[in-house]
Amino acid sequence: MITVKGETEFPAFTYDKEHTFHAIASIQAPKFEEISRASRAPIDLIVVIDASGSMAGEKLALVKNTLHFVVNQLKKEDRLSIISFNSEGTLHSSLTELTPTGKGVANKMIDSRESWK
Predict the structure, then answer these.
(1) How far, rounded to the nearest angstrom, does the alpha carbon of residue 93 sit from its chain's CA centroid?
(2) Hey, how many other C-beta atoms are within 10 angstroms of the C-beta on 29?
(3) Cα–Cα distance, 20 to 37 (Å, whole number)
(4) Whole-model pTM?
(5) Are 2 and 29 in contact (CB under 8 A)?
(6) Pick from 55, 29, 72: nearest CA to 117
(7) Exposed, middle or buried by CB within 10 Å (0-12, 13-18, 19+), for 78?
(8) Are 100 and 76 in contact (CB under 8 A)?
(9) How do residues 52-71 score in pLDDT, each as one tens digit?
(10) Torsion of CA 65, 87, 78, 108, to 10 degrees
């Protein structure tokens, strides 16, 4: 079973005016042991990365670490595409199978901040 949770930056809001706030959503899939990786159908994963200046420093490092983890967890039949956006979107890779070579290319792209502009 997949679990989805949402959390806002403030515990409550007034209903009489518009609010701007940050929120986070987390999605938890079953543990690896509960699903056989070999029996899972291949997936197409499209990653959209915020390449604006506000993502510099620690935020960017966290995004990169997370993407490396995701790439390394996917199997060779899965496909990945990377898109960045700032004032407009940029396609960095079309859907590519994550063979060992494909994983190497994806990890190299993730490490290269310049490739996201």
Answers:
(1) 14
(2) 10
(3) 40
(4) 0.65
(5) yes
(6) 55
(7) buried
(8) yes
(9) 888 878 888 888 899 999 99
(10) -50
